[in-house]
Design a protein that fits this description.
Blueprint lengths: L1 H31 L4 H35 L6 H22 L1
Helix pairs in contact: 1-2
Length: about 100
Amino acid sequence: MDSLIQLILGGFGVSDDLVSLCRSYMSSLVQQGAMEQWAMDKLIGQLEEELARRREALVRGFKNEVEKFLSFLPFVTIEQFKALEARVKALEEEIANSKD
């Protein structure tokens, strides 16, 4: 499971690498005079916003899929376990009292 999580988080980190690469390549264009600094800043900002939206959508989608998967597994909540434990204790006491 840890390797799966590392792959997923690594995939989310790709967007940061992409922004860094674009900034690096565009900086050379700015230095050569082929692009204005403000245009590069605007473009990088738009790229960062779009990648952030996509990252959020991926995280939501992944979370929803994990929740669906977990809903099929026979897990009990802490509250359900405590309720069951209380019922078992009550039954044990009832049995003990009926023997007396």
